[in-house]
Design goal:
This protein is mainly beta and about 375 residues long. Helix content is about 0%, strand content about 50%. It contains 1 helix and 26 strands. Strands 1-26-25-24 form a 4-stranded antiparallel sheet, with no helix packed on it. Strands 2-3-10-11 form a 4-stranded antiparallel sheet, with no helix packed on it. It holds the Pfam family Glyco_hydro_130.
Length: about 375
C-alpha cells in the first residue's frame, strides 16, 4: 500500500554509548546491536517521544573458552562466564545452556531504554535524553528492560516493559506525569506474559489491556476448528492499572486457515476512534529463522472490546529491505517489522515500529486505510 511517509528515523549509529548507563561500568567493549521497538507518545510540546530499546552487546562475547553475559547486580553490572561446552552459541543474540528439562538461555546483550524526542510529525530527531534513560533497577530486570509501550490515560502516562531475569520474564509498569520522568511501579503481569498494551482511555471507569501469555504447551482445538492452537492475544481489566484480572472471553486467536499469523502478539496500544478501538498487532509466519513478522489491524467495540468489529487478514505493514539497505552490513535478522506505537495526526496516524530488530521506523498511514 502507499503511505504518506515511511523512513528510518533512528539507527545504531545515532546512539552514543559514551552516554550509556553501562559506560565505564563493565570491563568490556560493547556496541549497539539494535536501536529498535520504540514505545511512542506525544509530549505536551506537540513533539513525539520514542522510548527506544537499545540492545547493548558485547563486541567479543566469546573469549578464553567461555561465552559471557552482561548482568545487572546490586546497582552495578557484571560479566558472567559460561564454559563453551555447556552452551549452544548458534544464535549471536543469546545462548542456550545445556541440561535440565526445559529451555534455559542467557543474552549476549543488555537492553535499556533511551528517550528520543522527534519533531511533531516524527520526521527527524530533535533531542536524545540520555539523562532520562531507563536502565535495570531491580533484580527482575537483571538481563535488561525491553520493548516499551506507552499509553496516555487521562493526565497520566503509563509505560509497560518486558523485564528479563532468571526470576521471571515479566511485565513491569512505569508511570509518569510528562513521559520523561518515570516512576517504577513494579511487576504487573507475572512469568512470560509479553506485549502488554494498555488501552488509551477507560471503559466504564476501568483500565483495559491486551496481554500475550506464553508457554511451551498449548491444547489442541478440535479437528475442523477455525482456530489454531498457539500464542494468542488476551484481554485483562484493572481498577488501578496495577492489579489485573484476565478477561474470561477469548480474544484475538490464530486462524487455522493461514500460517501468516500462526503466532500473534500485541503491537501498538489501542486508541479510540469513531468506529471503536483501533488495535495494531503482529502476526508471525514460521520460517527457517525467527519467523516473518508483519503488522495487522483490528477494530474493537468501544464498550465491549472483546467484540471484534472488523479485522484485516492482509498485512498493514511489512518489512521493507529498501529502508535497511544503507545499513545492510549491520543486519543480523530479516523479514521483521514490529509495531510498537501509534499517535493521531489529523488525517493520518503516525506509527512507530522496530525494523529488522535494528532501527526505528516511522510510517504515516492515512485514516482512510482503516475506513475512518
Amino acid at each position: 500500500m502507499s503511505f504518506f511517509f515511511d523512513h528510518l528515523v533512528l539507527t545504531p549509529a545515532d546512539v552514543d554509548l559514551a552516554r550509556s548507563p553501562l559506560a565505564g561500568r563493565i570491563d568490556a567493549d560493547t556496541y549497539v546491536l539494535g536501536a529498535f521497538n520504540p514505545g511512542m507518545t506525544r509530549l505536551a510540546s506537540g513533539n513525539l517521544l520514542l522510548m527506544v530499546r537499545i540492545a547493548e552487546a558485547l563486541r567479543e562475547p566469546i573469549r578464553d573458552g567461555h561465552i559471557h553475559a552482561i548482568r545487572w547486580f546490586d546497582g552495578g553490572y557484571t560479566l558472567d562466564a559460561w564454559p563453551l561446552e555447556q552452551v549452544d552459541t548458534a544464535d549471536p543474540r543469546k545462548f542456550t545452556v545445556h541440561g535440565g528439562g526445559w529451555p534455559v538461555m542467557a543474552l549476549t546483550s543488555l537492553s535499556w531504554l533511551l528517550p528520543v524526542e522527534l519533531s511533531s510529525d516524527g520526521s527527524r530527531v530533535v533531542a536524545m535524553h540520555y539523562d532520562h534513560a531507563i536502565a535495570p533497577a531491580a533484580s527482575c530486570q537483571c538481563y535488561g528492560v525491553e520493548d516499551a509501550r506507552i499509553s496516555r490515560v487521562g493526565d497520566r502516562f503509563l509505560m509497560t516493559t518486558c523485564s528479563v531475569s532468571p526470576e521471571r520474564h515479566a511485565t513491569v509498569l512505569y508511570s509518569s506525569p510528562d513521559a520523561l520522568d518515570w516512576t517504577l511501579e513494579g511487576i504487573v503481569l507475572d512469568h512470560q506474559n509479553k506485549d502488554m498494551l494498555i488501552f488509551e482511555g477507560l471503559i466504564d471507569g476501568r483500565y483495559w489491556a491486551e496481554t500475550r501469555p506464553l508457554g511451551d504447551l498449548f491444547f489442541a482445538y478440535p479437528p475442523g476448528s477455525e482456530w489454531r492452537a498457539g500464542p494468542s492475544i488476551n484481554l485483562a481489566t484493572s481498577p488501578d492499572a496495577l492489579h489485573w484480572k484476565p478477561c474470561d472471553r477469548p480474544f484475538l486467536r490464530p486462524r487455522a486457515a493461514t500460517l501468516a499469523t500462526a503466532r500473534m502478539g500485541g503491537g501498538a496500544p489501542p486508541i479510540l476512534t469513531d468506529r471503536g478501538w483501533l488495535t495494531l498487532w503482529h502476526g508471525v509466519e514460521p520460517n527457517a529463522g525467527v519467523g516473518t513478522y508483519r503488522t495487522y489491524w483490528s477494530l474493537l467495540d468501544a464498550r465491549e472490546p472483546w467484540r471484534v468489529v472488523h479485522s484485516e487478514e492482509m498485512p498493514l505493514i511489512e518489512a521493507d529491505p529498501a529502508l535497511t539497505r544503507p545499513i545492510e552490513d549491520l543486519l543480523y535478522l530479516r523479514d521483521i517489522v514490529f509495531t510498537t506505537g501509534i499517535v493521531d495526526a489529523g488525517d493520518h496516524y503516525v506509527v512507530a515500529s522496530g525494523e529488522a530488530d535494528l532501527a526505528c521506523r516511522i510510517t504515516h498511514i492515512p485514516k482512510a486505510r482503516f475506513g475512518l
